[in-house]
What we know:
Layout: E1 12-16, H1 21-32, E2 36-41, H2 44-56, E3 61-65, H3 71-85, E4 90-93, H4 108-136, E5 139-146, H5 148-151, H6 158-178, E6 183-190, H7 197-208, E7 219-221, H8 226-236
Parallel strand pairs: 1-2, 1-4, 2-3, 4-5, 5-6, 6-7
Amino acid sequence: xxxxxxDLAGRTALxxxxxxGVGRAIALALAAKGASVAVxxxxxxxxxxxxxxxxxxxxxxxxxxxxxxxxxxxxxxIEQARDAFGRIDILVNAVAILHKEPMLHVDEWxxxxxxxxxxxxxxxxxxxxxxxxxxxxxxxxxxxxxxxxSNSSLPAGIGYITGGAGLIGMTRQAARELAPHGIRVNCIAxxxxxALKEKVAKAALFLCSDAAQSLTGHVLAAGEDSAFDDRVAAxxx
Length: 237
């Protein structure tokens, strides 16, 4: 299979939830391809560690603190990213909260917190960054949603699964509304298995690349479609 060269030099990415797990893996992968990365996390120490790892490897990064369920904090996060790198070309919404209580025992706080972060927070980030991208000529937005939300379920975690299903709908609607502004919006359906984070990172690279410039409104199942994984691997090497 012909490999597709990915070069993100000169582009800036904002990755939420980038202090650990799949968000960190995506931030490191984007930086390795030349992007400057604004690393956002609720825990600033984790964000600092990811940003430090990028800088040690020769990349450019800044660490940002934000609770994305707070619209004012999201706006401040975006302005800090722009102050650091001048623009935002890529947004990866990688924040997700999973509470594993059985449905019959989920309390109001747990339900609201998962929806406020996983759905409302992703909307705030998408809307506010899209306004910036629209003024700058376009961009690429990637949402991460639970693979189990579209094709199965978990033993427990109704707030997480509901949020994942909502993100899929949000992705498709945002893709339609933002297309006239040159903004592509796609979703990666990510299994809860952390072992697949490198495949998810490669999928994110693919969606940011010129090879995916015609893709918008798609939900890509990383780690479950071998043909897709082969295409992504070839593009992301």
